[in-house]
Amino acid sequence: MRVVYHLPNDDLREAQREAVAAEAAGFDGVVALENAHGPFPPLAVAALATERVQIGTAVAIAFPRSPTITAHAAWDLNKASNGRFYLGLGSQVKGHNERRYGIPWTPPAPRMRDYIGAVRAVWRAWETGEKLDYHSDNYELTLTTPNFAPKPLGLPRIPIAMSAVGPAMLRVGGEVADGVRLHPFSTQRYLQEVSLARIGEGLERSHQAGGRARENIEVVSGAFIATGADEEAVARMKEYIRFRISFYCSTRAYWHVLRLHNMEDLGLKLHPLPGAGRWDEMASLIPDDVVDLFAIVGTHDEIGAKIAERYQGLADTLSLFIPTDTDPGPLAEVVQDIQRIPTPFKGYGTGW
């Protein structure tokens, strides 16, 4: 199993320092989120300061950016990292697209399928010189000129992963993406009964059309991991995760998971609190058994075995959601323990 580390995106100097430390600690990759800051600048400084780790967005919000704008950003980072970049894309929810980004909302699953196809069409035009002639329900791209087309890289195709929570997005991920990034707000049962089942349906469509096998699609689990050198450190991490769980429980877009566990009442209790500014009350509504359902909890000595128990055979890569001021160095042995867990994933497709 591969392990990736989350970089801070609010301080580029710190992002570069942590990328170097994560590489030294043995992490397989480093990723950057898009929230209060963009995901691309931290990866630029990480690319220039590292030699081995994969770098990627986890995730970049797709729809507010045109596919061509995203294609350019990814191309430049892939060049800077000598082929170590992958593009993680997410749709965000309806309210953020309409009220934060000011763009119309359309059904996200077919739009994401078209978006990924558009980005790849632009890349193929740049790399192979073929005419750009992409047509879909959501995007029409037919123009690229020498002044606006970067030179071919001579590298394998940039992998595209997409985040997915609901069944339709999971199917699209299995059908067209090189990887599916699962949200940390998930459980072992949801992973088995919903996420992998729907990814499998999409993968079957792809396979029937001459596409990939399971070994060519990477399932990334964004698990909540409460770990530390001792019980006190674990307890601090557990409280950090308790609040994050409360936030996702309050958001309707993530209630697929609550429904599976007959926990919609918890979502209904939490939903009004953010709008009322009652953020400080939210974590207190999440009992320990709910934390244990969503998170893996244990000291550094224990956590590898617990991760294997929950995710072996299900996930290929573990994205560690830990506070961004955590020093990656002490996690080296934890990383090695996780990397010993066997997975189905063998590698991405390489053809443009």
Number of domains: 1
Briefly note the structural class of the backbone.
alpha/beta
How much of the polypeptide forms β-strand, as a percent range? 5-15%
Number of strands: 13
Average the pLDDT over all residues and give the rounded result: 94
Distance between the termini: 26 Å
| Rg over C-alpha atoms, rounded to the nearest angstrom | 20 Å
CATH names the topology as TIM Barrel
* CATH-level-2 architecture: Alpha-Beta Barrel
Strand order of the largest sheet: 1-2-3-5-8-9-10-13
- The succession of helices and strands, N to C, reads EHEHEEHEHHEEEHEHEEHHHHHEHEH
Task: Give a short account of the largest sheet.
Answer: 8 strands, parallel, barrel
Give unreliable regions as ranges: none
What is the global morphology?
A: globular
Query: Portion of residues in helices?
Result: 40-55%
Let me know the CATH homologous superfamily.
Luciferase-like domain
Classified by CATH, the class is Alpha Beta
What's the tally of helices?
14
Task: Write the SSE topology.
Elements (H helix, E strand, L loop, with lengths): L1 E5 L5 H13 L4 E4 L7 H10 L4 E4 L2 E2 L5 H14 L4 E6 L3 H7 L7 H21 L5 E2 L4 E2 L18 E5 L2 H10 L2 E4 L5 H21 L9 E4 L2 E3 L4 H19 L5 H6 L3 H7 L1 H4 L12 H7 E3 L2 H12 L5 E4 L11 H8 L13
Parallel strand pairs: 1-2, 1-13, 2-3, 3-5, 4-5, 5-8, 8-9, 9-10, 10-13, 11-12
Antiparallel strand pairs: 6-7
Helix pairs in contact: 1-2, 2-3, 3-5, 5-6, 6-7, 13-14
Description:
This protein is an alpha/beta fold and 352 residues long. It has one domain (2-230, 300-339): Luciferase-like domain (TIM Barrel), CATH 3.20.20. The chain has helices at residues 12-24, 40-49, 67-80, 94-100, 108-128, 167-176, 188-208, 231-249, 255-260, 264-270, 272-275, 288-294, 300-311, 332-339; strands at 2-6, 29-32, 54-57, 60-61, 85-90, 134-135, 140-141, 160-164, 179-182, 218-221, 224-226, 295-297, 317-320. The strands form three sheets. It has an eight-stranded parallel β-barrel, surrounded by six helices. The chain has a two-stranded antiparallel sheet with strand order 6-7. α2 (40-49) links the parallel β2 and β3. The protein is globular, with a radius of gyration of 20 Å. The mean pLDDT is 94.
